[in-house]
Design a protein that fits this description.
The protein contains 19 helices and 27 strands.
Amino acid sequence: MERSLNKMLEASFKKNWDCAALSDFKGITLHYRDVARRIEKLHIIFNICGVEKGDRIAICSRNQANWGVVFLACLTYGAVPVPILHEFKPGNVHHIVNHSDSRVLFVGDMVWENLNGSEMPNLEAIILINDFSLVSSKREQITETRERLNEMFGKKYPKSFGPNDICYHQEESGDELAMINYTSGTSGFSKGVMIPYRALLSNVLFGQEVMPHMNNKSNVVSMLPTAHMYGMMFEFLFEMTLGAHVHFLTRVPSPRIIMEAFAAIKPDVIISVPLVIEKIYKQKLQPILNKMSMKVLLQLPFIDQLLEQRIKDELVKTFGGKFYEVIIGGAAFNREADEFFNKIHFPYTVGYGMTECAPIISYAAWDRAKLFSCGKPAPRMEIRIASSDPRNIPGEIQVKGANVMLGYYKNEEATAESFTEDGWMRTGDMGIIDEDGYLFIKGRCKSMILGPSGQNIYPEEIESAINNMPYVIESLVIDADGKLVALVYPDMELAEKDGLDMDTVLKKMEENIAAVNADMPNYSKIAGVRLVPEEFEKTPKKSIKRYMYQQNS
């Protein structure tokens, strides 16, 4: 891959100078010319701060237009952005800023209220991302530059700043470090994933290859955290290379706000984690489908096709009505919802990726996808299953290719553990690949439970069945002294509305478990159920932090 990501961005800015680029939903809109100006002003500040090519710059705020400006300013200067999830606890933010050796921190005003500058002694400057005001700086020169920034910008470009004034850093090789993204995995500690330019470029090219309908007239709603690789790549960076218009939700993406944004913006593609789609399925469709009359009608030929078409039309309208497909990734998708969407030919697909691959590993377009599969290896990627019979016996999914990380920052031991002797990256996920090359994920290696006679039990598959039962919001299956126990977070709001007390809810859960057990082999049957009073702790991509609950067994 000879192409340069920064030169692609440069060409996009020049070509799309007068197009809308970044908007805060119900707020400001920046055109590509505005973003380019802000980038140039930040480059002046980086220069005065003594930031050199390869230096780290931390970014910690909620999604907003200026987040995009700062991230692009870092890449196009040759600095290394370190996006930090704004939901991280202050101690974790301090640790990541220090561990990454960041020179400058751009921070959201709400996040800054809980941070402590003295805990991050190596920073040259701390800048509020909302208006680029200076919170603190180590040198008088930086303070003076910020105060006189517009004047300095005017002196540098006395005849005005135009498309031909843009000249962005060109990466020297595909292996040059582009960014460091700290994971917040289900195993409990953050690791700094070193992502090279080849991985970012390969993912951007993937976006262009699988979404050829996207162009500089396209709109996208950014609802996933931009500090997370999945949202950053496919709701932001890929779009910037096309001249598309990204709309940041800027607030917690509740189903109501998402629906409102979809109706107003009518996005051309929708990138989502399963949780968002499952909520819409549970709130909008399940109550209708569970009615006895509907169940009967769906069994009748012709009538079922008409009803399915009406349900599909209603769903398409809910998502704005203009999208090419909904791409779901980041965690396992509920099997019942998957099956139903597949049955009504809703244009959705489930992909597979991880931060360490920036993020894409496998994908198939919605009209070529297989039910319960995550598609085929993405372009420039290879997948193998570490198993004696990869089609029938699950083994660890291992990958190789342009998207794979360089390793973990300042953590040689974790890097060495992540690669096999022959250079394949271990994903930590278990799966099989069928005769047509489609990947089917069975669960995490770490969460797999060994049955009494050595059988492999994948708790995610059992949880998917439990989660479809009445009055269940979410569940977690754990191994308690050799027996499987289901921890269930019940929907008490719905139960109380239906006049059920806690004892009755527990009885209902026991009935649910009996129904699930009826479809399970003996070694996968649930021995007991416990209700939990609050939802499970999750990572930002909404995977349950399993390690926190295993010890409670």
